[in-house]
Amino acid sequence: MARRSAIVATGQTHHRSIRRDVNGQEIINEAVTRCLEDGDLTINDIDAVVIGNMDHFEGINYVDCWSVDGCGGFMKPTIKLTTGGTTGSTLAIAGHHLVASGAFEKVLVIGWEKNSESDTTGAINTAFCPIWDRPFFAGAIAGLSVTAQSYADRFGATPKDAARVAVRDRRHACLNPYAHLRKEVTIEEVLASPMLADPVCLLDMCPRTDGACAVVYAAEGLAEKMCPQPAWVHGVASRHMFSYVSDADFAGGSLFSMERAAQELYKKTGIKEPLKEIDVIEMYQPFSWAGLIWTEDMGLCKKGEGPKLVWDGVTDLGGELPINPSGGVVSTNCIGATGLIRAAEVALQIQGKAGERQVPDVNLAIATGFGGCLWTDMLAYGKNKPE
Amino acid sequence: MSNVWDSVEPRVLESRIKVPYAWQAGETASHFLLSLKNETKFVGKKCAKCTKVLVPPRKTCPYCFVETGEWVDVSDEGVVETYAVVRRDTGILPVEPPFVYGVIKLDGADTGLVHIVGEVKPEEVKEGMRVKAVFAEERTGKILDVEYFKPV
Amino acid sequence: MDKAAIIGIGMTKAAGRVKEANYAELVYPAVVAALEDAGITIEDIDNIVTTSNDFWDGRTISSMATGDVSGGYDRNVSCVEGDGAFGAFYGWCRALSGHYGTTLVTAYTKGSESVSPYITNAAFDPIYVRSLGLDMVSGCALQARRYMNRYNVSEEQCAVVSSKNHRNALNNPNAHLQLDLSVEDVMGSRMICEPMKLYDCSPVSDGAVAVVIANEEKTKKFGKKPAWIKGVSFCMDNYLLGDRDLAECAALEKAAKQAYAAAGISNPRKEIDVAEVYDAFSYQELMWTEGLGFCEKGEGGKLAESGATGKAGDMPVNPSGGLLPSHPVIAGGLIRIAEAVRQIRGEAGDMQVDKDVGTALAHGVNGVAGQSHCVWILGKE
Predict the structure, then answer these.
(1) Measured between beta carbons, which residues in chain C are less than 8 angstroms from residue A54?
(2) Most Cβ neighbours (<10 Å): which of A118, A282, B74, C122?
(3) A387 located within any domain
């Protein structure tokens, strides 16, 4: 029988630019150990392991096989998923399916990345088709800046509007002991930072980070016994749209995959007024402009009104619908883990364990993932079991 | 569709991806590799739970999933558990074929170390053969600071 | 777990080099064939799991290369990196988790587009092992020697497997190599990495495969010839070769035990009618038939010599030829599943085994020297 699942434990490393003191296995082990401790579990309680990262960032083939010392997968079912930037959220979705299907009772899900071990842009470039796209498409920033430019043209948003998003996330990060960048920035500092690709400046953009995150999913019946407040999965959705960069619609002013994923998720969960009904969002927002555009694509406000939502303080901690209380991706981006950190942070919010970044009265929370060729993953978690 | 290719040669794009890597070894591996470099000595790490001495050493025991405890000196001599004779040049080999890979259980260790068995004719390598490490003259803190293991 | 079945299969003809198609163009015909075989269209597919490997493709986010041809546009898509049998496991879970009813699972590799030793060398630990230059072949050779020494298995016994499988492939229109090899031909082939000679090693091929997995409701709606999924399990051993007892396959035994338990099988030799196993090297079929319980430990060679694992035998193994004649890497395990489905349906043509097939086994492997195994049991009912 298909059944409900919940996140019952989480763990993450203190994310840093370069973790010189540990190798890949050891950084994974840190997150896993913390997660097991959080759930008062041992590795013997785990039925299966799901792990992911972006291969070319560490240059290790068959990472699931390599990761045994770090992930505890010795003589366990272990499987690897990877979908680029969405890897972490893909993993979060997989943990749910593996439990909900009845295959396993307790699944350990791990996302990790040691970006410092490679040339990030060199590695990302290999994602694109060598014949049509790779010669022209330099890394992640180029495409994102095009979407920002076209959105600005269409709706009149300014770099200052985008900077306000960066300011918000960097301020939130100061309350998150795990975040990588824990220093506030001002609007002026963002606007004055070096231009990467019009209109995206350095401080609009996420850093690259070494870090790992682990969560445990448990089945209904067990989850309630394992922790006082499980974070129940209410729904999951994803949209992969394109394979070729040139097929993607960069100039439409919207993230099509997010609109479609949000529609599906809201339908599944019965959400009709997202701004009212959702209590907190951890958005995989790799750069500040996305914090304007994607609030609209998630249906939190009308197209073009993202800046107003942000300037009104709605999305700040203390506002009606805080976004990225953890500091989000512009404060921490260990890619394979990043999407999973969104799910872990949302789980912490529901469990009331988010410390200084806690949003009060969280009943329903959303975690999103972004990556690949403008793909979106979305997960909804709740305090109570879904219908 | 197939007749499209009758008179047209499919084009092929020859290319290479270039992604340089710099892997952090971590404290445990660094200790082992520096011991090879500076002292031509092998060390293993003992698991606090199962008491296996792991060579090469790990921070966490892969069997028990607990942190390993004390460092233990192990011998530079041991036994060949299994071997394979490479005949084909793949372009990434440290020595020219034919040569022999072996899994060597050093005296004092409970796990095997993968390395090369040298100074031996391939047909003479046997399971159970005793071998001893031969260190490179110039060592930089890498696994190839050990050039190979030779029969004793 | 709830009932589910494989209701459609499709694959391309594997070849040494398919210059006329890129990854997407290789996968698309397999997908089209699977949909046709299931009697559905892409509109009936709820979600997709693609299986690929970034290193073999030379592309990080390798799933991006075949998303659209797998029907990924505006759909729920995920990607497993590892052998296709594992991808299908996840696809099966997704069909049963309450969100979706039909999962399309694809797997492919174009082995010709890279230099395989570089690719498999990258599977070895960068700190302690990689610079030694090991690859899949030498890594497996270490296992072969250990196994053969412990159980007194001869190179001839391995050659029997190679000859059987290559000859089986003569009946398989999709196989890459179609060579009528005798045991002498295998024994006389050039030594690659002792104890393995050329014909003890599988080639590296280009190929793609797709299957459609459906839950019970959708199977009843669409499935014309369902192969029911009776039990699936997978299990991973330790990583460093020196941490493992290479002469044994503990992870396979555990996975098989769990899959058999789920399928209600207590005597695999009697109850499994045909098996498609992951024989990347000839010694592996011997080891895996033992690990799967088709014979006692160390008796795999005798089993092969007896003819029991031939098409006409009582324990046919790899009537399609397995991997030895045809190895599109990541597609390997999923092709085993597809071939097992054919056997259950009685549609394997000249590959169809003589005995009646009620229960079939398919098997996939991830990692070096059989580190991680995935076992599938399929049934007619």
Answers:
(1) 54, 60-61
(2) A282
(3) no
A292/A254 Cα distance (integer angstroms): 10
d(CA A256, CA A267): 17
Distance CA B119, CA C170 (A): 44
Chain centroid to CA C311: 18
With CA atoms as reference, the chain B residue closest to C239 would be: B62
pLDDT digits over A183-236, tens only? 999 999 999 999 999 999 999 999 999 999 999 999 999 999 999 999 999 999
d(CA C233, CA A282): 34
Co-location of A213 and A187 in the same domain:
no
- Domain residue spans in chain C? 4-115+205-222
Q: Which CATH class is domain C4-115+205-222?
A: alpha beta
Q: By the CB < 8 Å criterion, does A200 face chain C?
A: no
Residues 6+ apart with CB under 8 A from B6: none
- Number of folded domains that form chain A: 2
Looking at this protein, which amino acid is placed at residue C353?
A: V
Span C229-262, pLDDT tens digits: 999 999 999 999 999 999 999 999 999 999 999 9
* Consecutive H or E run containing C57: helix C54-57
The answer to whether A372 and A222 have CB atoms below 8 angstroms apart is: no
ipTM of this predicted structure: 0.97
Q: Which of C99, C109, C129 to mutate to test the interface with A (most CBs of A within 10 A)?
A: C99
Q: Which residues pair with A382 in a beta bridge?
A: A232, A364
Closest partner residue to A103 (CB to CB) among C1, C53, C55 is C1
Tell me whether residue A150 is in a domain. Answer: yes
Q: How far is CA C223 from CA C100, C172, C203, C228, in A?
A: 16, 25, 35, 10
Residues 6+ apart with CB under 8 A from A225: none
d(CA C320, CA C318): 5
Sheet holding A364-371, edge to edge: A78-80, A48-52, A106-114, A210-219, A5-12, A231-239, A375-382, A364-371, A280-282
**pTM for the whole thing?**
0.97
| Same domain for A100 and A24 | yes
In a domain, A243, yes or no: yes
